[in-house]
Design goal:
Elements: E1 3-13, E2 20-23, H1 45-60, E3 63-68, H2 78-87, H3 92-106, E4 115-124, E5 127-143, E6 149-156, E7 162-167, H4 168-173, E8 181-184, H5 190-200, E9 202-204, H6 208-226, H7 230-250, E10 254-255, H8 256-263, H9 270-278, E11 285-286, H10 290-294, E12 298-303, E13 306-311, E14 319-322, E15 327-330, H11 335-344
Antiparallel strand pairs: 1-2, 1-4, 3-8, 3-9, 4-5, 5-6, 5-7, 7-8, 10-11, 12-13, 14-15
Helix pairs in contact: 2-3, 3-5
């Protein structure tokens, strides 16, 4: 992932603990406006490794999604600053300092956010993104040239608590309802998430966990409707989960049309049409939610003329397993099966 621009600033609480202060990167305030051209750190392999590690961590974390608010109280100056930077009217250093100052002011009561603020403009394939991540430093132990153990500070890239990423390419394409802004949204960091929303000047859109759950429900309904056998059902479940995890790793949303083609190569539009015809209310692009996906798998079994297949999330709700008596209790009999049983009587 080539870096076009990258810079690191420092946020620290004042001695009285009342607010956060910014220490800009040395010489950054003296740089002249030059637009989005490769910076001196663009070819730095260490900085590239740092940004790569931050992206890897970011991709696995729970996130909120949305887009820049165009008007009203939610709208902020970030979108305008970005336009100025991409147009060459503001240098990357100027843009990053303005962003860091706004962050320090916005989160001045959250002193735990002190650390190194990494801002990077990067390109992967045809897509350009902007990543903002606050990284904490931790003390470790290293070995010096004399082979002696010595204190060695290092950045903790695996435990991000505050970060956001903007898909610049998608934003500039002006696609309707596109969710091109994402931000960390951990359960324990509600105030930080709210601060990031204000900082970014965005309106939150897609609820990734809810959308992912709805997609999995739509998939389960589709498998049941098509009456695939156990082996085919498992294969299609694996295809969906593998695709979702790959998009999760890349930090990109799932596309319903693309997923539909993978789930049924013989009828690539079938799953997509099932979703649309049943009106699940799903967005064309869905950010995958790691926690929801990790809980999704399909139980299947066949014995003595009985074939059973159901999603794991149903266990404990509409389906119960009594281990002591080796019984499976189905509380909500599928409509199609119920009709067949009624006719049999």
């Amino acid at each position: 992932m080539p870096l076009l621009q990258s810079i690191v600033h420092r946020l620290d609480p004042t001695l009285d603990g009342e607010r956060l202060t910014l220490t800009a990167a040395p010489g950054s305030s003296e740089l002249q406006s030059s637009g989005p051209q490769p910076s001196e750190t663009g070819d730095d392999p260490v900085m590239s490794s740092l940004v790569g590690a931050l992206n890897d961590t970011y991709n696995t974390k729970p996130k909120g999604w949305g887009r820049f608010a165009e008007e009203g109280e939610q709208a902020g100056p970030l979108a305008m600053w970005l336009r100025d930077y991409l147009a060459g009217d503001k240098s990357f250093a100027e843009f990053s300092i303005a962003l860091a100052e706004r962050l320090a002011k916005q989160l001045q009561e959250q002193l735990s956010v002190s650390g190194y603020l990494v801002t990077s403009h990067q390109r992967q394939g045809d897509t350009e993104t902007l990543l903002v991540a606050l990284v904490h430093q931790r003390e470790g132990i290293g070995i010096n040239s004399e082979h002696h153990a010595v204190p060695a500070a290092q950045l903790n890239t695996s435990q991000l608590t505050l970060a956001a990423r903007i898909n610049l390419t998608q934003w500039q394409s002006d696609a309707p309802n596109a969710q091109y802004v994402s931000f960390l949204k951990d359960r324990g960091g509600k105030k930080l998430a709210e601060g990031l929303i204000t900082l970014l000047g965005m309106e939150e859109g897609v609820d990734a966990p809810a959308e992912t759950r709805t997609l999995l429900k739509a998939f389960s309904d589709y498998v049941e409707k098509e009456d695939f056998d156990d082996e085919v059902s498992r294969e299609k479940t694996d295809t969906l989960v593998d695709y979702a995890n790959e998009q999760l790793r890349r930090g990109e949303p799932m596309t319903l049309e693309e997923l539909s083609g993978l789930v049924n190569e013989q009828q690539p539009k079938a799953f997509y049409e099932h979703i649309r015809n049943a009106d699940y209310g799903l967005s064309p692009e869905i950010p995958p939610d790691k926690r929801t996906l990790s809980q999704f798998r399909r139980f299947t079994g066949r014995s003595g003329g009985v074939s059973i297949s159901f999603d794991s999330h149903l266990l404990g709700s509409s389906i119960e397993y009594d281990a002591a008596q080796d019984r499976l209790i189905i509380k909500q009999v599928p409509k199609q099966l119920k009709e067949q049983l009624t006719k049999q009587d």
